[in-house]
């Protein structure tokens, strides 16, 4: 018998800014990523120095064409339906609806595109899980207003939310307000449309922007429920199990404080108040939030309906990091765990960590959970007969799904599982195509060359079986 609930939502996830392309088509404005080159040509430098990046003309912008999902979505959705997807997670590109972010009226061409996309998913029997802001604040709000550090952006966000909540009432049930909201700590530009290059205290700007996002998320939850009582609104963090390097008490405390840095985002969304430990945190970091009258009441009155999180790897924390070997990651590195293998990109592979995180979150909050990103970025080889043997990806996903099933058996309530990059797409961290996650191969390379042809990988057929058996058969094809 399956450990997964009868109506468990199996599916996959992509993001508009990593898949659509058509960056200046049908009235779309610039997204934050549209000024970023690939890793070889200074992506990280442009991300951390966006004004400089904005003024630089690069040879190649990965997001401008991406995998052409904007034009190819019907074929792509058909292939996902062939696998039996119960849910499809995607995002709406905010600048496709409000090109600069501050317009009074939405762009009809953008609204119609997502209506057609969502209807296509519904016609194939899929629920939709839609992220409202997936690292996709309009570049215009960065350039003109300073991004989420400016409280006025809350109103622009709510104007955008109203437009999409009203338009897609009959198509979308599940919404996530902000993708991996805690990423703002690691990338102020991507997470909050911030330019902190010349700030005396970057953390002051980041935490103030976070506060504005918390208020915006709560007000969006209120608005959503007013427009459609059946809407389910969730928050999301980049999740990870965090282990102490040793049983040395100082290492244990270091891991505890690192864990709190993630959990306080969820504490506010679920419990509606800043946790007590943030008072000391802000004092030590010389952060003084500007909290307007009524803000704390808004947070308390409008908590989320469910919690979503990504999970790719676990991390290790130590009181003394100076002599420790480090592992890789998208936006930050961490101390290497000697007990775990690594992916080609240096991410440590820890399926049991997913069980640990799922149990921790459910024990702490008692809210339904949704695993909305999980996957293995790897190089794939296309054989002469167009087959792709990605057994390494099957191995990764199989063991993570096994541990998620164990967490459900432990008592955690989990709504669904959407593995990341179900169709190969542009990497958010590096701008690469070679770092592939999908069940569906897209013929495009790191330089933007290729036919864009789609091919089914071995994992395509394996995941189809997993879904058909509701997770009771996760063994190899």
TrEMBL record:
Gene from which this protein is expressed: ascB
EC category name: hydrolase
PROSITE patterns named in the record: GLYCOSYL_HYDROL_F1_1, GLYCOSYL_HYDROL_F1_2
Active site as annotated: 373 (nucleophile)
GO CC field: cytosol
One GO process term, biological-process aspect: carbohydrate catabolic process
PANTHER family hit by this protein: 6-PHOSPHO-BETA-GLUCOSIDASE, GLYCOSYL HYDROLASE
Protein name: 6-phospho-beta-glucosidase
Family of the protein in this entry: Belongs to the glycosyl hydrolase 1 family.
InterPro entries for the chain: GH (IPR017853), GH_1_N_CS (IPR033132), Glyco_hydro_1 (IPR001360), Glyco_hydro_1_AS (IPR018120)
GO molecular function: 6-phospho-beta-glucosidase activity
Organism annotation: Culicoidibacter larvae
Keyword Hydrolase: yes
EC id: 3.2.1.86
SUPFAM superfamilies to which the protein is assigned, alphabetical: (Trans)glycosidases (SSF51445)
Pfam families documented for this protein: Glyco_hydro_1
Keywords per UniProt: Glycosidase, Hydrolase
């Amino acid at each position: 018998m399956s450990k997964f609930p009868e109506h468990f939502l199996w599916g996959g996830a992509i993001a508009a800014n990593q898949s659509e392309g058509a960056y200046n088509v049908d009235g779309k404005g610039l997204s934050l990523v549209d000024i970023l080159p690939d890793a070889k040509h200074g992506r990280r430098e442009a991300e951390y120095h966006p004004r400089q990046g904005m003024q630089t003309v690069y040879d190649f912008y990965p997001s401008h064409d991406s995998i052409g999902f904007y034009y190819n979505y019907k074929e792509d959705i058909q292939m996902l339906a062939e696998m039996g997807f119960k849910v499809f997670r995607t995002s709406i590109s905010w600048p496709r609806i409000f090109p600069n972010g501050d317009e009074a009226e939405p762009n009809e061409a953008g609204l119609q595109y997502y209506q057609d996309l969502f209807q296509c998913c519904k016609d194939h029997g899929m629920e939709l899980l839609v992220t409202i802001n997936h690292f996709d604040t309009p570049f215009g709000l960065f350039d003109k207003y300073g991004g989420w550090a400016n409280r006025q952006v809350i109103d622009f966000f709510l104007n955008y939310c109203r437009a999409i909540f009203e338009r897609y009432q009959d198509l979308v049930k599940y919404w996530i307000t902000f993708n991996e909201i805690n990423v703002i700590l690691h990338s102020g530009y991507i997470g909050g449309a911030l330019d902190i290059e010349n700030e005396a205290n970057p953390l002051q700007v980041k935490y103030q922007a976070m506060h504005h996002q918390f208020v915006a998320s709560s007000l969006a939850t209120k608005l959503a429920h007013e427009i459609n009582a059946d809407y389910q609104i969730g928050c999301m963090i980049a999740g990870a199990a965090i282990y102490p390097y040793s049983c040395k008490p100082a290492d244990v405390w270091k891991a505890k404080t690192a864990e709190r840095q993630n959990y306080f985002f969820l504490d506010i969304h679920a419990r509606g108040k800043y946790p007590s430990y943030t008072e000391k945190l802000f004092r030590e970091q010389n952060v003084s939030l500007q909290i307007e009258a009524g803000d704390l009441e808004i947070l308390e009155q409008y908590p989320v309906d469910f919690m979503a999180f990504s999970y790719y790897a676990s991390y290790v924390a130590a009181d003394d990091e100076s002599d420790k070997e480090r592992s890789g990651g998208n936006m930050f590195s961490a101390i290497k765990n000697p007990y775990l293998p690594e992916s080609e990109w240096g991410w440590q592979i820890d399926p049991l960590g997913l069980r640990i995180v799922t149990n921790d979150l459910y024990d702490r909050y008692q809210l339904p959970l949704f695993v909305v990103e999980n996957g293995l970025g790897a190089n794939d080889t296309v054989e002469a007969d167009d087959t792709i043997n990605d057994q390494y990806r099957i191995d990764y996903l199989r063991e993570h799904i096994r541990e998620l099933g164990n967490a459900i058996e432990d008592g955690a309530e989990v709504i669904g599982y959407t593995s990341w990059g179900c169709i190969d797409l542009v990497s958010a961290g590096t701008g690469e195509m070679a770092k592939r996650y999908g069940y569906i191969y897209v013929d495009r390379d790191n330089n933007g060359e290729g036919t864009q042809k789609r091919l089914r990988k071995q994992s395509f057929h394996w995941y189809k079986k997993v879904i058909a058996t509701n997770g009771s058969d996760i063994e190899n094809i």
